[in-house]
């Protein structure tokens, strides 16, 4: 038995998975702890309303962040994983993706300028808007998808941890009074820029890449091939990010703060699932026979995280934020189902349907669930504010996850019968 365990542990794939798991565990641990450390301080220092203003502006920038990513965190990871031993092909994919993202960034910048000159509320927060937008540029420089596809996540982790800690330090050093909320976006962007620049330079050196000229037709081809992944990733934003945006329109910045803080806490509990998904996605692209084992691990982890979040939601809010944020408890209890639902979606959607190249099916599932939730959200958020926003998120995630599971299990059954 002992020799069998040693043999498994010494296997190359096992070592790679373990190295990637512990690297991402460190990163996710930092991502989980930083909101717990920094959010209470920010809310107490700048006030609930000012934090809500920042969250509203960030919800606008988040649209551009997702658009600029264009689904490459799925499509590019898969493409790289399948050719990772061919340096020339890896280099071509790298240049196509980077140059496609730069093209999208230029278009997004023009759109942002138009928005900033059109809407009065946004016009009053131009410094916050434009400094927060630097997050998008920092993200473009950071080839996380390359490190994932090459299964070299150790380097990505070190750089990202440093950038997160930089953000933490800047907040505690310079956010001292209510009016300092305007610098929150700048400090977060600074962390993204550090991470992006260092990750980009390291990628060039570690993987021996070269910047080459890519024709516009090749850039369009890369975007066309990634379109399904783009829709798959951008559609859920309609029920998460738009919930924050609509809450800012229909409610107050205080209610935005209630929902945003609850969502950030619940999202912290998704970290274990994100680790496993990031580790296993490139792996199952190479070893499709391991899909069911991976699915089981993902769902068990999601169930445990949801249970912990639900049971301790009152204590978490009370301990972290105090009495002024107690109204976010109901939203957090509702959102505590997020880890379980996302684990089901990861297991049967990302790690099954996408691995089986069912991109268009998964895209349609994303569109139906997101648009349905968005339409319902127009009424629920207007009536029930932060609680309504939380219900919309869970409703969309339920449709998304259960539909993905239905089609995946149907495919598995057909394969077995066939």
Strand content: under 5%
Task: Return residue spans where pLDDT drops below 50 for at least 5 consecutive residues.
Answer: none
User: How do the SSEs run, as a string of H and E?
Assistant: HHHHHHHHHHHHHHHHHHH
What number of structural domains do the residues give? Answer: 2
> Into which percent range does the helicity of residues fall?
over 70%
Q: What is the average per-residue confidence, as pLDDT, rounded to a whole number?
A: 84
Radius of gyration: 21 Å
Query: What is the CA–CA distance across the termini?
Result: 36 Å
- The strand count comes to 0
Shape: globular
Q: What structural class should be given to the helix and strand makeup?
A: mainly alpha
Count of helical segments?
Answer: 19
The profile of the biggest β sheet is: none
Question: How would you describe what is shown here?
Answer:
With 418 residues, the chain is mainly alpha-helical. It folds into two domains: 12-214, no CATH class; 234-417, no CATH class. Helices cover 86% and strands 0% of the residues. The chain is built from 19 helices and no strands. The chain has helices at residues 2-10, 12-46, 48-69, 72-83, 87-118, 120-123, 126-141, 144-149, 153-174, 184-206, 216-225, 227-250, 253-268, 271-286, 291-311, 313-321, 329-335, 338-354, 359-417. α9 (153-174) packs antiparallel against α10. The longest helix is centred in the last third of the chain and has 59 residues, at 359-417. It is globular, with a radius of gyration of 21 Å. The model has no long low-confidence stretch (mean pLDDT 84).
């Amino acid at each position: 038995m002992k020799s069998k365990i040693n043999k498994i542990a010494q296997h190359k794939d096992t070592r790679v998975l373990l190295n990637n798991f512990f690297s991402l565990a460190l990163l996710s641990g930092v991502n989980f702890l930083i909101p717990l450390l920094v959010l209470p301080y920010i809310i107490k220092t700048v006030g609930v309303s000012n934090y809500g203003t920042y969250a509203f502006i960030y919800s606008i920038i988040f649209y551009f962040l997702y658009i600029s990513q264009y689904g490459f965190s799925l499509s590019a990871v898969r493409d790289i994983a399948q050719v990772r031993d061919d340096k020339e092909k890896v280099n071509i994919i790298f240049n196509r993706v980077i140059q496609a993202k730069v093209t999208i960034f230029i278009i997004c910048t023009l759109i942002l300028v138009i928005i900033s000159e059109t809407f009065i509320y946004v016009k009053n927060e131009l410094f916050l808007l434009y400094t927060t937008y630097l997050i998008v540029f920092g993200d473009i420089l950071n080839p996380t998808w390359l490190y994932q596809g090459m299964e070299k996540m150790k380097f990505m982790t070190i750089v990202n941890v440093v950038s997160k800690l930089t953000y933490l330090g800047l907040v505690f050093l310079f956010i001292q009074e209510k009016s300092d909320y305007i610098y929150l976006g700048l400090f977060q962007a600074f962390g993204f820029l550090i991470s992006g620049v260092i990750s980009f330079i390291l990628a060039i050196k570690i993987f021996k890449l070269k910047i080459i000229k890519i024709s516009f037709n090749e850039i369009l081809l890369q975007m066309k091939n990634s379109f399904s992944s783009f829709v798959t990733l951008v559609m859920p934003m309609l029920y998460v990010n738009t919930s924050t945006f609509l809450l800012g329109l229909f409610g107050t910045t205080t209610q935005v703060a209630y929902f945003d803080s609850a969502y950030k806490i619940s999202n912290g509990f998704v970290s274990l699932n994100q680790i496993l998904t990031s580790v296993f996605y490139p792996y199952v692209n190479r070893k499709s026979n391991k899909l069911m084992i991976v699915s089981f691990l993902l769902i068990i982890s999601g169930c445990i995280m949801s249970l912990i979040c639900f049971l301790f939601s009152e204590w978490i809010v009370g301990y972290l934020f105090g009495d002024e944020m107690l109204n976010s408890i109901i939203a957090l209890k509702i959102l505590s189902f997020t880890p379980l639902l996302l684990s089901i979606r990861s297991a049967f959607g990302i790690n099954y349907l996408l691995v089986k190249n069912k991109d268009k099916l998964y895209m349609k599932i994303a569109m139906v669930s997101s648009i349905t939730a968005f339409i319902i959200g127009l009424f629920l958020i207007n009536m029930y504010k932060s609680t309504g926003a939380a219900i919309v998120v869970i409703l969309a995630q339920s449709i998304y996850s259960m539909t993905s599971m239905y089609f995946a299990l149907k495919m598995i059954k057909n394969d077995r019968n066939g």
